[in-house]
Amino acid sequence: xxxxxxxxxxxxxxxxxxxxxxxxxxxxxxxxxxxxxxxxxxxxxxxxxxxxxxxxxxxxxxxxxxxxxxxxxxxxxxxxxxxxxxxxxxxxxxxxxxxxxxxxxxxxxxxxxxxxxxxxxxxxxxxxxxxxxxxxxxxxxxxxxxxxxxxxxxxxxxxxxxxxxxxxxxxxxxxxxxxxxxxxxxxxxxxxxxxxxxxxxxxxxxxxxxxxxxxxxxxxxxxxxxxxxxxxxxxxx
Length: 237
Prior knowledge:
Layout: E1 10-15, H1 20-34, E2 38-45, H2 58-76, E3 80-86, H3 95-108, E4 112-116, H4 131-147, H5 156-159, E5 169-173, E6 181-184, H6 189-197, H7 208-221, E7 228-235
Parallel strand pairs: 1-2, 1-4, 2-3, 4-5
Antiparallel strand pairs: 5-7, 6-7
């Protein structure tokens, strides 16, 4: 951020599923909210497939996961949580998804947007990127630039009263060795873990906090912080 620019006041996190943001960046979000930012989550899918319980239905799970995400948002202090409602596990980086994301960017006018990576990571054996994550990352980046910025793209958004908006920075979560933005989240770990554990249908209540903290410890060691979250920063303008 240039010295003469207005400080950042609005943030947005765009992810595929309920709980993705908590795993990815809830320490940073907790910090932003504590510092007085308006922060909005945009979740692309309805989370309707995340259960191995034979008694569970997608219809039930949608309601459960929406409540869990709103509970997590209340813990963090979010301004709003937007559910785009695309079916879980079937997400594609379509023009329709791009438009729906651009709509929320124009509506809430974030200065900084956190997104997931659109690139598949085959190095980490325990986690080969979920296709919904790839689609959400690609659609989000495309919505930020150029769709939300360009007046003549999806002119129906203008008819809705949504003027173009220029996002000032994008932070890609999970940047790995390419990360160049590190956020000190030591003071916000308890809040972040509490938000994560709000996803009771998805998160191991006994062990998830330890896993979460250890990941932030490992990241912090790279830059001399006790606990840190890392991103690849992409400035615009």
